[in-house]
Write a structure and sequence with these properties.
The two termini are 40 Å apart. The protein has helices at residues 11-22, 47-55, 59-65, 100-113, 160-165, 224-227, 234-243, 245-248, 297-317, 322-325, 327-350, 354-366, 372-375, and strands at residues 2-7, 27-31, 44-45, 68-70, 72-76, 82-86, 95-97, 117-120, 122-129, 132-139, 143-153, 175-184, 192-196, 205-212, 215-223, 257-266, 275-276, 279-281. It is globular. Helix content is 35%, strand content 28%.
Length: 378
Amino acid sequence: MHEIIVAGAGPAGSVAATVLAQAGRDVLLLDRTGFPRDKACGDAIAWGAVRLMLDLGMGEAVRAAGFYPIDAMRIISPRGAVFETALPAHEGLTSCIVPRETFDTLLWTHACKSGANFQIFQVQEPILHNGRVVGVRGRNGHERDIRAQLVIAADGATSVIARALRPDKAPDRHRAVALRAYVNDLDVLDHMVEFHFTHDLIPGYAWIFPTGERSANVGVGMRLDLFRRKARTLKQMLHDFLSRPALAGRRHSQSQVQDVLAWQLNFGSYVFPRVYDGALLTGDAGGFINPLTGGGIHNAMITGKLAAEVALHALAEGDTRRQVLAPFEAGWRERLWPNLRLGYWLQRWLVSSPRLTDWVVTLMMRYPRLAQVFASKL
């Protein structure tokens, strides 16, 4: 019997495990694979996520990793209007582009160094006793049960724990799909991210996030209900985007499209319980993706830290019932709900058509402060 099981060692799970281990608690961190491992993502890391890493004592590791800093962004409307703006530094910190293979490994390594016990383990379902989560069942060579006083679910957008506990499934308008690739021998805008709002993706977009001098994370993403109406795959959409004359001219003879991966996103705009008797849902398992940008790493880390803090209180009380864990619900709503709700309505209405998106970008060009809503998510 462990005090706490953290299922999933991505950003939410590793942060939760770090906070718990640093407090001296018995925490078992589980993931279906070892590290380093790739993860489908746009790789954009908000400055606030870097701040949180420093707060956890990761300053030396962050500096040694050499994150690629981002200090500006470009938005291209469907008709080709271009808006550019600088991204302000916060406390001397900027947003960055960091491949998830590097980023997740840093967080996982720090969790283990902090005292978390890690095991490769494929969680298949939560163990329930009288409606209360008392552990997880899964496989590591053979099937076995692992029990704990509290389970923190951080096992991603397809979380088996969330599926077992949640009363329903989010409608497609509160979900998205995306696909990313790494493209080399490509002319990039140094330290500037690009958002391309094209007719076939709106209210989604295509992106070019530089990872180095001549390489980038390039991808496409769109809301799931709209994607289902399309007759094309995400790979075809990415190919079409890269074949646009403005993009094709930036690729050179050695340019290759590599490591193509797709993933699902669960928007934080859909309301459902994230707190259960004996369990908390964090990160993508709790659906904390921003509906406007598709970003979720910083939100995942915030919910991981908050879950750990609530867990510490519950363990001190000797009670992990839903009522005692309720501060997690109140905490994420206070920290995240205003931006999640705003992001949902912006993508539903303000960038819901090519004509409206053109108007918004033109308005940004005339009134740059309007861009701060978008820029603040990076």
